[in-house]
Amino acid sequence: xxxxxxxxxxxxxxxxxxxxxxxxxxxxxxxxxxxxxxxxxxxxxxxxxxxxxxxxxxxxxxxxxxxxxxxxxxxxxxxxxxxxxxxxxxxxxxxxxxxxxxxxxxxxxxxxxxxxxxxxxxxxxxxxxxxxxxxxxxxxxxxxxxxxxxxxxxxxxxxxxxxxxxxxxxxxxxxxxxxxxxxxxxxxxxxxxxxxxxxxxxxxxxxxxxxxxxxxxxxxxxxxxxxxxxxxxxxxxxxxxxxxxxxxxxxxxxxxxxxxxxxxxxxxxxxxxxxxxxxxxxxxxxxxxxxxxxxxxxxxxxxxxxxxxxxxxxxxxxxxxxxxxxxxxxxxxxxxxxxxxxxxxxxxxxxxxxxxxxxxxxxxxxxxxxxxxxxxxxxxxxxxxxxxxxxxxxxxxxxxxxxxxxxxxxxxxxxxxxxxxxxxxxxxxxxxxx
Length: 434
Ligand code: GDP
Description:
Blueprint: E1 3-7, H1 14-22, H2 24-30, E2 41-46, E3 49-55, H3 64-81, E4 84-90, H4 97-107, E5 113-118, H5 123-128, E6 140-142, H6 151-159, E7 176-181, H7 187-195, E8 201-202, E9 213-219, E10 222-228, H8 242-256, E11 259-265, H9 272-283, E12 287-293, H10 304-316, E13 324-326, H11 335-350, H12 355-368, E14 381-387, E15 393-398, H13 406-419, E16 428-433
Parallel strand pairs: 1-3, 1-4, 4-5, 5-6, 7-10, 7-11, 11-12, 12-13, 15-16
Antiparallel strand pairs: 2-3, 8-9, 9-10, 14-15
Helix pairs in contact: 3-4, 12-13
């Protein structure tokens, strides 16, 4: 997993840089689920390379006296878990004691560290930022995360650490499922219930470095690899930063998987952290399903399930075509249903719709509901093809692709979902010039 962690003391501009790298302000405006999301991690892309940016500042809570300790801990965790660390400092204040302390920790790390001098908004500041060479951490990158200047050069360097994205050399062609969710929702209990005592742990797969353990499951006609993060507890001191740690593990499990099983505790419902994970899965084009666990602890009548489902779908909009299953791991209710559904999602994610069937159905849909003409120009779709890839992508060849607007794309997506089962799978639609 390619994880870029932004560390630094408060107010240097970490979250502004985070927003710039991930463009999450745009995402928040787009969000019509009505939930304010405190996003501390998000997928980003630069020159075709994908990575996840983590704003460590977002995980520091509490009063001032525990603040510095918490920041130190974030730095330790970033050193352990991230692939690249951006150490952010503020040119307008210069080096503070806490900056020096953080630099000390980072100098001992073997991970690539970039010193990022923020708020370099005019030429004079460029000279001032030279003082940050005193950290002994190499090159200082001058940026203004408000205007975006300098971030391009920085990103060029950062992504040079990430391997070229290659067509997955699939060492074992098995579906990879990851159970993710907040602490205590029941992830380990589900893993244990599924695997029983026969934990056949696939640890050593030649030629690859692994961030997580893959467990080979092969029972009742279903065979897959379960990405296990629960089993990987931190070796070093476990303490208050469980959230940050579990987020890092979640990102890695998610990136390594084909299908993400997002587990919730029925007593808490779906919260902003869950929605963040859900969107991360969607953005990464992973299959996804939701499991509402501890259903045994909920007082129910005939409407309860439906109401729960509706509330969840409202909050994950607009991508709502995902399975939702209600389980009790302790009562062994519907736990195999989870496996079956996850395998269905995998099948949906990997299936190829025959071109003739695709054209028969979708050209008729388009004929009945053509895209609106613009300035008297009619848009004619000639044919449709599914593009090979790790998740479903469709190209619609037409005369004026630039005239196709988002509402029509959404309409087409809904029709594809209606006619061909893509439950649990993000799909991409492109209109292209013939
Ligand atoms: P994890 O942190 O997500 O791996 O959660 P665990 O599997 O450790 O479970 C946390 C707690 O919730 C444990 O005490 C479990 O026994 C309990 N638990 C898990 N699933 C259920 C369930 O379906 N119903 C109830 N009542 N408790 C559950």
